[in-house]
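Retro notes - structure team

What went well: the batch runner handled both jobs without manual restarts.
What didn't: labels got mixed up in the shared folder, which is why I'm recording both outputs here explicitly, each with its sequence directly above its tokens.

Job 1
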Amino acid sequence: MAINPAFFLTNATRVIFALKWAGVENVYFMNGGFEKWADEKRPFAIQVTLQVVYGLLKGLYLITS
């Protein structure tokens, strides 16, 4: 199955711009994926918090560098 790399680049770029537009400050394009990011010893932290709001399950994902 051939996958067009430009398709993923376009989607990743849209997500980055959407997050920045929404006010998220620490957003990065991980060219080479998470494995390369970790191999280069770049900082990262992942925090996942779930809470119930008015009977709905709401997820909050916080990824910081």
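Job 2
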Amino acid sequence: MVDKRSRSKTGNKRTPKRHENFSPVQTGQVSRRVGGNKSLFSFCVWSRENYLPITPDKCSVAYFLPYLNPKHEYFFDGTAIPSTPGPVCDLGVMISNDLSYDEHIKVCSRKANSALYYLLKAIKSNKLYCTNSVYRYAFSHMFYKLL
């Protein structure tokens, strides 16, 4: 299916609507800077061909199991991608360099404990049955998030 809006009246070539200053990548220039990383180079070419600007400053390199994985400097479109020294948070899950979830569990349990504290402080009831039922209900929902 051909999109008629993206065609010019003079020919069949696609004219870019956005990012007119987004020129295609030159093969020799980027492959030398990437240092042999073909997948990063192909992603750079793909982003240029599809007019999708990628900001390398918002990206980061995570080295998992650093004693097995040598540290290299990666470049995207001539800009060095910074590496992260500590745990990485991706889609709400924190993973450390040695692939443990200890930091994620600490953060989730800290949030759950503070929420329980404020909930029990807001109830202000001395009845054990009321406090116990609220604690069970809230703790079951907060424990589900830890999993």
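One thing worth noting from job 2: The mean pLDDT is 69.
We'll revisit the folder naming next retro.
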